[in-house]
Amino acid sequence: ISEALPFNIDDKLEINDNLRLKYRYLDLRRPKMQKNMNLRHQICMEIRNYLNNKDFLDIETPFLTKSTPEGARDYIVPSRVNPGKFYALPQSPQLFKQLLMIAGFERYYQIVRCFRDEDLRADRGPEFTQLDMEMSFIDREELFKLIEEMFVHLFKKLLNVKVKTPFLKIDYQEAISKYGTDKPDLRFGMEIIDLTEIFYKSSFRVFEEVIKNKGEICAIKVECDKEFSRKKLDYLQLFITSFGAKGLSYIKIKEGKDFQSSVAKFLSPEEIEKVKLKTKAKTGNIILIVADKKE
């Protein structure tokens, strides 16, 4: 009789990630993982078909190469025939694809592994697979069109989902000012709203000092204030100060013109109404405000 499995092969169970990785051969038997692997294969096949039909060549580039530092540290591999010397694993095929362009291969791609020795984050890992491509004699709009059409093809072919084109485009400054990042998730919805002009003549000393020092007063509107207990708001105070902010103010919008605020006694009714109008806040919303210098 065999021993009991460390976990049942069932998608309905929440399994610890470390346990899943320890028994990876069992984890890969789960229907969800089988489906993921199959979908990944189909994506790669459709990308190849799409690019082949656009006159691209799939060309492999070396893994064992010299160090060409990019955005991270290199992984190095000792050379057996040259003691004391090392190869570096490529962070990307950047130099090789540029050589291919010079050599007359005007459209290149490969689905390739890349290696970067850097701290782990949600979107960072030591090795990953990317679609790498390069084209000669094109402009930016041609590149956008090619990539958009590829995604439209993939979603329609594999998921039967129709993707609307052209894709929304925003510039760097707009992304930073509205979302605080250059790669915003637009589903998030809670844009950063600049309230500085509302408080130019404010008697609230904190806001007055920030504006005097050419800082900004910005806010995020949250749809439901019931999730923001006093305890949670106190935690948010500590959380944002750990990033260098001076503090957090809030305004909870109640029925009619009623409201609850941590800075109620410092703000005039006119300022509250202007904030509500600028943020399009409604009953049940909470407005979170931070005032500090602009970086």
From TrEMBL:
GO terms for biological process: aspartyl-tRNA aminoacylation. SUPFAM superfamilies: Class II aaRS and biotin synthetases, GAD domain-like. InterPro entries: Aa-tRNA-synt_II, aa-tRNA-synth_II, aa-tRNA-synth_II/BPL/LPL, Asp-tRNA-ligase_1, Asp/Asn-tRNA-synth_IIb, GAD-like_sf. GO terms for cellular component: cytoplasm. Pfam families: tRNA-synt_2. Residues 47-295 form the Aminoacyl-transfer RNA synthetases class-II family profile domain. One of its GO terms (molecular function) is aspartate-tRNA ligase activity. NCBIfam families: aspS_bact. This is Aminoacyl-transfer RNA synthetases class-II family profile domain-containing protein. It comes from marine sediment metagenome.
